[in-house]
# Entry
Amino acid sequence: MMNTHARAHVRGRGPQPIPGPSIIISIENLDIEDHTSDDNESENEDTTTIAPSLSRKEKRKKRKPRNLPTPPSSDSTKSTISTSTDPSSNSNTEAPLSKAKPHKKNNPSTTISIPTPLNSPMPPGANTLYPLLVCSLGNPGSAYANTLHSAGHTVLNEIATRGMYTPFSKGLSGLVSRPNTTRYKLSLTGGYHKAADVGLVEGEDDFVLWQSTTLMNVSGGSVRKAWTAFEKEQRARGMEGRLVVVHDELEAALGKVSVKDGGASPRGHNGLKSCQASLSGVKWWRVGVGIGRPESREASVVSKYVLSKMNRGEQASIENAAYGVLKVLRDIQEGKK
# Structure
């Protein structure tokens, strides 16, 4: 009995089915695994022949690595620098490292051009000064001296007195005052004595002052004669002279100085009318000195006013106008007018 029970016990533990591992092994040996491999092979064959369409997200992922900058090697850096500095490089050469423009101060080829004005007042020759014949209009004689109508004579007397001019004397069909070019020396025994006639010093006014000795209304003829003689003198010196006429200006305030072209309207001034008739074809300037005018416009009142003697205030205003006249004369001499 003991043996039978033992055999039964052994029999019961003998031929029993093996769990899980034997089943897995049998599944691996089925034909299904072969179909799966065939499908994988077919998929591999398709990917090698036709690329599947990618989504936008996948395309971006593929593009990004391409745009990432790659650190240049030492050789490529050297070649880039050398080609950018080579002046003979073609258009395919890489752009320079810096696009900043060179500063103007460091650019030796930079030049500044100043445009030349079209209407330059400067006469030919940078330092040319024109000698002037300055004529004043007025009535002659003591009866008409120091009258408002003879304000031009008063102005020229003031210029001659305050400047270095000779006293007025007869010449050029009138009265002439020229620059005093005589120089004197002081001696301990003999006092002042004449040293030499040095002529005009550079920078001094080259003016010849001339006063008419004819009546105002017919003064044009004597002005023309004086100008003809003066022009001849200047040509002998190799100079080009200019003519200026100083006169009283009834329509301007007392002592006011104005300058006009000789051909401008005389505005009823008979002396200017006579000059315009006699100086046809001559370029000349006229400088007016204001004497004011009476309130009445009647001819008799105006005539009495201009022929009256100046009082102290009026004479002082006319004499002070000489400074303004002198400035205008210098502008004409320098070619600024």
